[in-house]
């Protein structure tokens, strides 16, 4: 069953499908498949939590090693052989040998990176679904809505529920690309490819000082439009914008060259990765003029944020895995509404407590070889969720 409506430029229709309510054996079979997925997720959580602790401690140790060895350079314009092979710190303005060009639009800029971003005006499908039970059947009501938007990627309209009237071109006539300067320097030192990759603070380039490059291209604001009427674009029209990162020369409309701070190993006139005794690599670049202490403080903060993010991801994976593996108990009693709700609450509480305890215990094992005292404290802390859960069980049930 379908209903159609047209609200201005936004079109939508509703489709309702129905299927028989799955039987007990069918739901049990689906639950069994979920248990297998849950087991895999559960095991992956152990791997993620354990390896994350080793990575975090190894990174912290490498940063401490780097801070104790780094040598601040007195000048970025002279190369001292005494620092050959050592970890050095320097700060200065970026420079490149040649400007980056986009001849198709008559644009050039002295920068480390120049990105052309092409967007096409296309139909986009949105889907909103809800399920409900009626007359012993499971019905699914899905509302499909369509709107025209600028998109950087080609939207495949063949996957739409209703392609008629919402067809998009299969490709863009103009492609996006990113140009990178082959030679980037700070003073007399050439940056490695890894350091250049870290220069990614892109800013949109103003096109106000440029003319229309072709008769069929119109400039509007900071975009070049391939359109007969940019104010009323049609599906298939293009608009092009430009972004730059790492200004490496004085530009009349943009200002002076960007400054960066680098910590890396000196090899001749090149700055390359430094391999620590812990097995990590130090190859650091930050925008601005920062001291050695400020750089390593930022690196420690970044390491801490990454560690906690992965801990949270590991705990969530363990919680989801346990929930999926114990879902079969919910399926066995889902014919009885009151019992079903109680079992569901109990299973969630069980998954929460066990996931918290096992996560803390895994983290403790990860720290065992690095910080034994902290590992012992975490191991003791891992017992707390289970003790709390047992303390809430009535005495008769414990017996």
UniProtKB/TrEMBL annotation:
It is found in: Endomembrane system; Endoplasmic reticulum membrane; Nucleus envelope. Pfam families: TMEM43 (PF07787). The keyword Signal does not apply. Its main location: membrane. It comes from the Eukaryota. It is a multi-pass membrane protein. The chain crosses the membrane at residues 32-50, 308-329, 349-369, 374-393. InterPro entries: TMEM43_fam. Keywords: Endoplasmic reticulum, Membrane, Nucleus, Transmembrane, Transmembrane helix. GO terms for biological process: lipid metabolic process; nuclear membrane organization. GO terms for cellular component: endoplasmic reticulum membrane; nuclear inner membrane. Belongs to the TMEM43 family. PANTHER family: PTHR13416, TRANSMEMBRANE PROTEIN 43 (PTHR13416:SF2). This is TMM43 protein. It comes from Falcunculus frontatus. The lineage of its organism: Eukaryota, Metazoa, Chordata, Craniata, Vertebrata. The gene is Tmem43.
């Amino acid at each position: 069953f379908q209903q159609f409506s047209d609200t201005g430029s936004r079109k939508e229709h509703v489709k309702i499908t129905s299927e028989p309510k799955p039987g007990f054996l069918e739901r049990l079979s689906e639950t069994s498949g979920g248990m297998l997925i849950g087991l895999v997720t559960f095991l992956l959580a152990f791997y993620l939590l354990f390896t994350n602790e080793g990575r975090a401690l190894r990174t912290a140790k490498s940063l401490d090693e780097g801070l104790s060895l780094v040598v601040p350079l007195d000048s970025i314009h002279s190369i001292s052989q005494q620092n050959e092979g050592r970890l050095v710190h320097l700060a200065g303005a970026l420079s490149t040998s040649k400007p980056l060009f986009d001849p198709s639009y008559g644009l050039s800029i002295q920068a480390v990176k120049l990105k052309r971003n092409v967007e096409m005006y296309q139909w986009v499908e949105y889907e909103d679904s809800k399920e409900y039970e009626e007359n012993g059947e499971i019905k699914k009501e899905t509302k499909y809505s369509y709107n025209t938007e600028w998109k950087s990627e080609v939207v495949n309209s063949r996957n739409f529920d209703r392609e008629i009237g919402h067809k998009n071109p299969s490709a863009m006539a103009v492609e996006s690309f990113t140009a990178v300067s082959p030679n980037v320097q700070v003073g007399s030192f050439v940056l490695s490819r890894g350091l250049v990759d870290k220069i990614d603070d892109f800013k949109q380039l103003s096109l106000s000082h440029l003319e229309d490059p072709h008769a069929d291209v119109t400039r509007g604001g900071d975009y070049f439009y391939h359109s007969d009427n940019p104010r009323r674009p049609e599906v298939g029209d293009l608009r092009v914008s430009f972004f730059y990162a790492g200004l490496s020369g004085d530009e009349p409309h943009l200002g002076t060259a960007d400054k960066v701070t680098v910590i890396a190993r000196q090899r001749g006139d090149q700055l390359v990765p430094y391999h620590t005794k812990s097995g990590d690599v130090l190859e650091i670049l930050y925008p601005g003029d920062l001291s050695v202490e400020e750089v390593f403080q930022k690196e420690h903060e970044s390491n801490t944020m990454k560690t906690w993010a992965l801990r949270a991801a590991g705990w969530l994976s363990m919680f989801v895995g346990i929930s999926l593996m114990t879902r079969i108990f919910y399926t066995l009693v889902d014919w009885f509404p009151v019992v079903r709700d109680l079992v569901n609450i109990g299973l969630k509480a069980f998954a929460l407590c066990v996931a918290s305890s096992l996560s803390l215990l895994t983290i403790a094992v990860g720290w065992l070889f690095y910080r034994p005292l902290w590992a012992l404290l975490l191991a003791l802390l891992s017992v707390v969720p289970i003790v709390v859960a047992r303390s809430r069980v009535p005495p008769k049930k414990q017996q």
